[in-house]
Design goal:
The protein is built from no helices and 27 strands. The protein is an all-beta fold and about 350 residues long. The strands form 7 sheets. It has a 4-stranded antiparallel sheet with strand order 1-25-26-27, with no helix packed on it. Strands 2-3-4-5 form a 4-stranded antiparallel sheet, with no helix packed on it. A hairpin with a 5-residue loop joins strand 2 (about 15) and strand 3. Mean pLDDT is about 90; it is low at about 1-10, about 340-350 and about 350-359.
Length: about 350
């Protein structure tokens, strides 16, 4: 399954591991918050609370790993601390173990946030972004605590993995007054290459990527206003901005895996501003609007390769549940008139470096 949470640069309400086997969220209310791990790789999902002696702050970040441990990111004054939480199964009752990994110091004005789960399932990365430089830290999966792995000129946000190995990472970099998505090659000591430029002056952000199909979901103001668009990784074809994706502040939160070399068939789940869910394929000319299920942890979900969207929900009757929905069949293509309107100007294609060799 491919899994995503709604916003890369803030604490997600529900984060899912890279392989879809575990998830984590902050449960509780007010000052009584605690980490909660969901197990998804089984016939029925179930939740395990991971409380400690002191409650967690509401802005703590959580990231589940594929071995069942949960990384927690806490801010303590100007220091950002990272730990791994796990259930110990003590004889006296469930207990929470904590392995402290160390921390990262951040000066005033430096924003630190977790990246989405790394594809290997065992590593975790955080970004520390100032106005002039961004440092990428590996905070789990390394031997001696948090380690800096790349320094990138400019202020970065976002964060999207571009491959299944965890080598290529896309970040949205603000530099000289514009925002452009760049690719960071962790196999080459953090080498930075251009990834997306539609026009020279446009702000071009990468929201989601699906490595199997190469589908990219983009937000850009190149059409004259911020719009959702799509492209294909490593393709020379331009980014397209379908009229059906004029959806205001809608955000894609999950892309269907397993559609190798078929980006037009890849299902996309959208969080709509009204709180509903939109389902769409690039081959479709419309977005299917569906009411969100009761108790949906908005902005989180995962696709199966077969096209089934799984949404985490919590209610008083079912505090740990998954609701599924399927992508409707594509409608037949419309009848085209003989005379076509003149094509709109083509934007600049996606940059191919360093991704030209993708099969």
């Amino acid at each position: 399954m491919t899994v995503c949470a709604i916003e890369m640069t803030t604490t997600a309400p529900f984060a899912i591991s890279a392989d879809g086997s575990y998830a984590a969220r902050l449960a509780g209310e007010g000052e009584a918050r605690y980490a909660e791990r969901w197990t998804l790789a089984g016939p029925e999902p179930y939740a395990v609370p991971l409380p400690l002696a002191q409650p967690e702050e509401a802005d703590s970040g959580l990231l589940p790993l594929s071995d069942g441990r949960v990384l927690i990111h806490r801010r303590v004054a100007d220091r950002h601390a990272f730990s791994l939480l796990y259930p110990t199964g003590a004889a006296a009752g469930p207990r929470t173990g904590e392995l402290r990994l160390g921390g990262v110091d951040a000066e005033e004005g430096v924003r630190v946030f977790l990246l989405p789960p790394a594809p290997d399932g065992s590593s975790a990365f955080a970004v520390a972004a100032s106005d002039t430089v961004t440092t990428l830290w590996q905070v789990a999966g390394c031997a001696f605590g948090p380690q800096p792995v790349a320094r990138i000129p400019g202020r970065c946000s976002g964060g999207v993995w571009l491959d299944r190995t965890g080598r290529l990472l896309a970040l949205d970099r603000e530099l000289d007054g514009t925002v452009k998505a760049v690719a960071v090659d962790l196999g080459r000591d953090g080498e930075v290459s251009p990834l997306l430029q539609i026009t020279e002056d446009s702000d071009d952000r990468l929201l989601r990527a699906e490595p199997d199909s190469g589908l990219l979901l983009i937000r850009s103001d190149a059409p004259g206003e911020p719009r959702l668009g799509w492209g294909v990784l490593g393709s020379s074809r331009p980014v397209r901005f379908p009229e059906c994706l004029r959806l205001g502040e809608a955000l894609p939160f999950a892309l269907q895996p397993g559609q190798a070399l078929m980006p037009e068939s890849c299902g996309v789940a959208l969080w709509l501003p009204e709180g509903d869910i939109g389902l769409w394929r690039p081959a479709d000319r419309r977005v299917f609007r569906l009411a969100a299920p009761t108790g949906w942890l908005g902005g989180a979900g995962m696709w199966s390769p077969q096209g089934r969207l799984h949404l985490p929900c919590t209610t008083a009757e079912a505090p740990c549940g998954i609701v599924g929905m399927s992508l409707p069949a594509s409608p037949p293509p419309p009848v085209r008139p003989d005379r076509q309107p003149p094509p709109s100007p083509r934007p600049v294609p996606l940059q191919q470096a360093p991704l030209a060799g993708r099969q």
